[in-house]
Amino acid sequence: ARSTQAFLNNAWVHNIALSVLIVVFCYFYNSLVLNPADLAENMKKMGGFVQGIRPGEQTAKYIQYVLERVTLGGALAVVAVAVLPSILLRPLNAPFYFGGTTLLIAVGVSLDTVGQIESYLVMHNYESFAKNMRIKGRWFNVK
Predict the structure, then answer these.
(1) How many domains does the chain have?
(2) What secondary structure letter does DSSP report for 51?
(3) By the 8 A CB rule, do 19 and 101 touch?
(4) The domain containing residue 88 runs over which residues?
(5) pLDDT tens digits for 118-136?
């Protein structure tokens, strides 16, 4: 019974384990999706470069360095959103039915659904939407 109590949503062990897993899986996901050597090679083929860095292997090392730093920052932000609700509500003994992870998933799915609905409406009724159309993304808005 004691070991199961440690992994309840508001327990410290649960929050620490969740934080570690989030950071590990952020790095794991980035290692699967982004390959610095391929990015550097594609940049070289297209004539692109990073100012002050030689094309090729040095660019790949620089991209890897930047990726590690950005991944850590993003992972810590996700940890904050996922863990802070349970930490802040723990002293109050208040019920909180939606954890931070649930909120992240719900917001992401909602934004993607709205984007798909807008693209469907624009596709089938383009002329009336063309006048007031805004391209909306998760991180940007373009008029």
Answers:
(1) 2
(2) T
(3) no
(4) 1-96
(5) 888 777 776 665 566 555 5
